[in-house]
Amino acid sequence: MAINLEIERRFLMKRVPAALLRGMGFLEIDQWYSESGERFRRTRDGNTSRYYITKKKMVEAGVFEEDEIELTEKLNEEMITPIGWPSYDDRVKMPWVSKLRYVYYDRKQDLKFEIDTFENMINLVVMEVELKDINQKFEIPEDIKKEVIVEITGMKGMSNRDLAETN
């Protein structure tokens, strides 16, 4: 596993901007959280699934040390999921979130805005923007900005893990 610094700001939104929904694809994401602190994440893009195990440690609000590995090398005996992935029986006991992710690339600012709609939580839409520095200046694109309610970076109860535990 390689430790990286993840720096992001998060915002609660009213909805996914209509302009993003027109002709834009999405990524399906399911995340389970273990008692020992790992996040198990499966992403689906069409017929392709990818599996990850991640450990995150908060450094400060919006800044995390992230230790992540993609499980692609060997599959388990059922050839369904990679070795190291929790069984179905284990996953159903874990807090989880299921979401659709829409991505908007702002080439002018060289930034990626990820907008998640949480499938298992009614009307919850959260946007994340990954930065090089937590104090980096940026502008939220106008079509997105009009749907932002409030910034939730570092707000208790609004991390994906916290949301999963209330599900």
What is the gist of this entry?
It is built from 4 helices and 9 strands, in the order βαββββαβββαβα. It is mainly beta and 167 residues long.
How would you describe this protein?
The protein has 167 residues and is mainly beta. The protein has one domain (2-166): Beta Barrel (Hypothetical Protein Pfu-838710-001), CATH 2.40.320. It has four helices and nine strands; from the N terminus they run βαββββαβββαβα. It has helices at residues 18-21, 88-91, 142-145, 160-166; strands at 2-13, 27-33, 38-45, 48-60, 63-70, 96-106, 111-118, 125-130, 148-151. An eight-stranded antiparallel beta barrel has the order 1-5-4-3-2-6-7-8. The longest helix has 7 residues, at 160-166. The radius of gyration is 16 Å and the shape is globular. The model has no long low-confidence stretch (mean pLDDT 88).
Tally of contiguous helical segments: 4
CATH superfamily: Hypothetical Protein Pfu-838710-001
Distance between the termini: 29 Å
CATH topology: Hypothetical Protein Pfu-838710-001
- The CATH architecture can be named as Beta Barrel
Proportion of beta-strand residues:
over 45%
Number of domains: 1
